[in-house]
Amino acid sequence: MMDRFWLLTWTTYGSWLPGDARGFVSEVRDEEGNKVLHNEPGTPCDADLPSLARYAASRMTEDGILLNRAQAEAEQLRETAGHRGWRLLALAVMANHIHVLAGVPGDPDPEKLLGDFKAWCTRRLNQGWGGRERWWTQSGSRRRKKTAHALRTAICYVRDQPHALVVWLDPDALAWINEPASGAAHEASGAASARRSEE
Fold it and tell me: What 3-state DSSP class applies to 48?
């Protein structure tokens, strides 16, 4: 039984810089000059700060990268999850970012989960396409999914990514979308509820 479920997202190096007009989550300075991070789900993120985007571009140590189909198909995500004993529910690989929805036993630091996925993908990509120091931007988004409804919504979100090069869903995840209170989605919700009651 998995105790925690996380939707993890990370971008390819140089493809979505702080300051981007599409929106971004990174430290910025408020009116008083203090560093702030606008990363609360459901609240607006920062966007369109050209000076920050230029500064971020000036700090890059390699060219930016967009994944091609062959690189996307070489993803190491399912193998990494299996090796670690995690339950991979859904994944989508786009040219400039990756989404992974995974369940984990216990309560490991989600930054560690993210780091493991990125590190193993880096090894696979370097084997096939030569060495790069950086394939990914630093860190990424880590959003916990606590209920069956949140899991179903996340599965659909990953499944329906536009312009995806690779999409994969756990066969059970397809059933959970259509049967909200059945199977592991119900079990996941119950496990999460039981865990919260212990905290």
Answer: coil
- Name the one residue in this structure whose structure tokens are 């390819």: 12
Strand 4-11 to strand 97-104: parallel, antiparallel, or no bridges (unpaired)? antiparallel
pLDDT in tens, 112-141: 999 999 999 999 999 999 878 899 988 888
> Cα separation of 160 and 100, whole Å?
13
Classify domain 4-13+63-198 at the CATH class level: alpha beta
User: What are the structural domain ranges in the chain?
Assistant: 4-13+63-198
> 164 in helix, strand or coil?
coil
Q: CA-CA distance, 148 to 153, in Å (whole number)?
A: 9
User: Which amino acid is present at 45?
Assistant: C
Biggest CA–CA distance in the chain, Å, is: 51
Read off the pTM. Answer: 0.78
First to last CA, the chain: 18
